[in-house]
Design goal:
There is one protein chain. The chain is an alpha+beta fold. Helix content is 22%, strand content 16%. It is built from five helices and nine strands. The longest helix has 18 residues, at 3-20. The N and C termini lie far apart (72 Å).
Length: 212
Amino acid sequence: MTTIHRAALVLALALFAGCGGNPSPAKHAVDTHADDACAVCGMYLDGSPGPRAEAWTAGRAKPLVFDSTRDFFAYVLQPENQAALQELFVQDSAHIDWKQPSHAAVSFIDARRAFYVAWQPLPGSMGPTLAPFATREAAEAFVREHGGAVLGFDEITPALVAALDYRCPARATADAGGPLQCQAAPAASAGLLATPPPASPASQERPLHPLP
């Protein structure tokens, strides 16, 4: 084999390794911090109730952080953002204190495999939010106690996020993305209010109760 042929072979192998070589390593959830700001609303995580989320996107060395699952879905469901999305994570509501969620990476689960309770009565940082769970059984147990409906990741639509409230819609419709299994919240359960807190600033200071 001539020197030219050997050089061509080496170049071809290098190009093959670069094009079809090892994929980028999978990203993992990371610890959040009190002074992290939500990628949608800009609010700091410090003092923010309810489960949080993270989204790895192409070209970033750190994930985007969200102070609520509602803001998380408002971002990831935007068509212009979807091409850059990589790994997505949400906190498991079964393993956090709702009032003071953990910052630990271990509290996050794969967002695409999680089950979400919509129209549930516990407020998030920006009002009504979705409660994620690692298993459908845990999500259904939450619904039996607090009301709402269990949804998979692919069932959550921009219309549903925009219309999200503390109560189930009076009538579930395809346009609103309302599932037929939607249930009204119990009158009172485990010390949690069945009705949403007032919209006044004072309501933001009302103590919340951690999940069992």
